[in-house]
Write a structure and sequence with these properties.
Number of helices: 14
Distance between the termini: 70 Å
CATH superfamily of the largest domain: P-loop containing nucleotide triphosphate hydrolases
Largest sheet: 8 strands, mixed
Mean pLDDT: 90
Number of domains: 2
Helix content: 25-40%
Structural class: alpha/beta
Strand order of the largest sheet: 5-6-7-4-8-9-3-10
Strand content: 15-25%
Radius of gyration: 24 Å
Length: about 425
């Protein structure tokens, strides 16, 4: 399939199949109100979505219709290195760089021949979503990237209701949602995949439809299929994470201000007169696997743990880890870290994390630490997405022959919960007074 793309200076003939690849025919052609695309990593869903919107904006703009696009993520400040970069990639991939204004100092992208715009917003600023205007044409399309992070259906509905009004013949309103399906409890499943709504196109995509992956890339998925079947279900087959056998059922995702939590706990005491609120910062080391650090506070009177800060990175040198955490205020904080690597702990201490110490661990410490955390309500701030993904999928092992649940957690999705468990090592179990 070939499409002509008009530019300011000439008309280029581009093969979309060669540039974009195959596997998304229904997605590319659909004019339904909603398109929900869940998929594995490497399934081209973001690449294809960005390419489709750039192509459609130019196609309709050059024909005298002027659709505009709104791109939404959970947090506004995450656009630059994700959706904006992806859309710029699509512009260049389609050979249209000269036709787009791509300013360095702002996020808005503008199609020069017509003045159509791509606008970027975050759900962290609801007011910015209620008064969106475009300089030319109509706001027709919305792209929710990483839609799984939109935890409130009511917030989605507010945006949905704002994309209304009469359009010129030939244009259509459409909301596209792309995401990894971390948990089958999310409202996205019920709303778009279980309802049978005729105005919804619901798709599941996998890495198999990405012909641009190398053989080495594909081999990683096959390895995951054997070693980490729970993760492969989501990141390989694009299926919903299943809640069965989860270790932690006692958590919620919720906005909170940690400074207000600290302020409200001032003077609050336990039964023995000790401060109720205590810091519980924990770290799990990795390199090819992620290094996970979490800033948390525990209320030892009301049995609540507030997880408010997340550092979750692969292939990070110790000096960079230390620099990041010091910059973010943890240079003097007590940090309980995985004690399997005392040399790393010592190096991080010399690099400026003066309060880092090894977790005690020992026989039965994993099961005991899990039981302890199960006594608390764990409240996770939305700014900690890797913890949310982990708690949605961290499960007990099953015997492969009998299917019997074992009293041992799977390694997969363990890095974030392990870091939290180390940080909370000194908390008491329910019913033990402190």
């Amino acid at each position: 399939m070939r499409r002509e793309i008009a530019s300011c200076s000439e008309t280029q003939s581009i093969s979309l199949k060669k540039v974009i690849g195959s596997g998304y025919v229904d997605f590319w052609r659909s004019t339904k109100r909603y398109i929900a695309v869940k998929g594995s990593r490497g399934s081209k869903k973001s690449c294809t979505t960005s390419s489709r919107f750039i192509y459609l904006m130019m196609k309709y703009g050059d024909s005298g219709l002027y659709p505009n696009l709104l791109v939404i993520r959970r947090y506004y400040n995450t656009h630059r290195d994700s959706t904006r970069a992806q859309l710029v990639w699509a512009i260049e991939r389609l050979g249209a760089r000269a036709d787009w204004k791509i300013p360095k100092g702002e996020l808005t992208l503008t199609y020069i021949p017509t003045g159509q715009q791509i606008l970027f917003r975050g759900m962290d600023d609801p007011q910015s979503l209620t008064s969106i205007t475009v300089s030319k044409g109509n706001l027709c399309w919305v792209w929710f990237e990483e839609a799984f992070q939109i935890n409130s259906e009511d917030d989605f509905n507010k945006v949905d209701m704002s994309i209304r009004g009469q359009l010129p013949p030939g244009l259509f309103h459409q909301i596209v949602l792309t995401f990894n399906p971390w948990s089958d409890r999310h409202w996205l499943k019920r709303r778009f995949f279980d309802s049978g709504d005729p105005d919804t196109l619901a798709l599941t995509t996998t890495y198999r439809c990405n012909e641009f992956l190398s053989e080495a890339d594909k081999a990683l998925y096959e390895k995951m299929k054997v070693q980490n079947p729970r993760r492969y279900r989501i990141e390989g087959d694009g299926e919903w994470g299943i809640a069965e056998g989860l270790i932690y059922e006692n958590w919620i995702e919720s906005e909170f201000d940690i400074e207000k939590v600290i302020e409200n706990a001032a003077g609050k005491k336990t039964a023995r007169g000790l401060p109720a609120l205590v810091p519980c910062n924990g770290m799990d080391f990795g390199y090819n696997d992620p290094t996970a650090f979490y800033g948390a506070y525990a209320d030892r009177k009301d049995y609540k743990i507030y997880v408010y800060y997340e550092f979750y990175e692969t292939m990070m040198e110790n000096r960079k880890i230390a620099a990041r955490l010091i910059t973010d205020g943890f240079g003097e904080a007590v940090i309980r870290a995985d004690s399997e690597d005392p040399r790393t702990i010592n190096e991080l201490r010399l690099l400026g994390l003066r309060g880092i110490i090894g977790a005690r661990k020992g026989s039965g410490s994993v099961a005991g630490g899990i039981q302890k955390l199960q006594d608390y309500q764990i409240i996770v701030h939305p700014k900690c997405p890797k913890m949310i993904e982990a708690l949605s999928n961290y499960a007990w092992k099953k015997d492969r022959l009998s299917g019997k649940v074992l009293n041992e957690p799977e390694h997969d999705f363990s890095h974030a919960p392990d870091a939290l468990r180390y940080g909370c090592e000194d908390l008491q179990k329910f019913g033990i007074q402190v």
